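In this supplementary section we document a worked example of the pipeline. Step one takes a protein sequence of length 164 as its only input; no multiple sequence alignment statistics are reported here. Step two produces a three-dimensional model, which step three serialises into structure tokens for compact storage. The input and output of this example are shown verbatim.
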Amino acid sequence: MEIRRASDPDWPALWPIWQSIVSAQETYMFDPFTAPEAARRMWLADPPAETWVATAGAAIVGTYQLKPNGKGPGAHVANAGFMVAPAARNQGVGRLLAEHCMRRAREAGYLSMQFNAVVSTNTGAIALWRSLGFEIVGTVPQAYRHRTAGLVDIHVMWKALTQL
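The serialised model returned by step three reads:
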């Protein structure tokens, strides 16, 4: 598996991954009816955001976006989003992307990483982040309208990047 910077020509392969995950309404707060071009502008955003892809042969099997969590005085805290193609789940792609992202964030000068909305029913992601040293620093009750579970909590998760 290779991880490389994403570019505009990758979008046709990224869109089905993005659309399937967002339309499932289980993990992301993006509008499930987002048009492909609007999604492309969000996921392949301008710098300082960076988008990366994991490939297996010619196929894109996962992606992440790294960006500042805030502007100005908060720009030293990274934020990231991850998506793994449904057919590539449970094969270590998410962990590989996460480890790459944390290294890249540190190289880019970020001091910590914060996830603002980890859906409480996304137990696989929570377990992954905890195994990589993230902690839940806050919970917002019933902040996510899950497609099948109804209103569920979201967690704010954080890790200092000096602890790699």
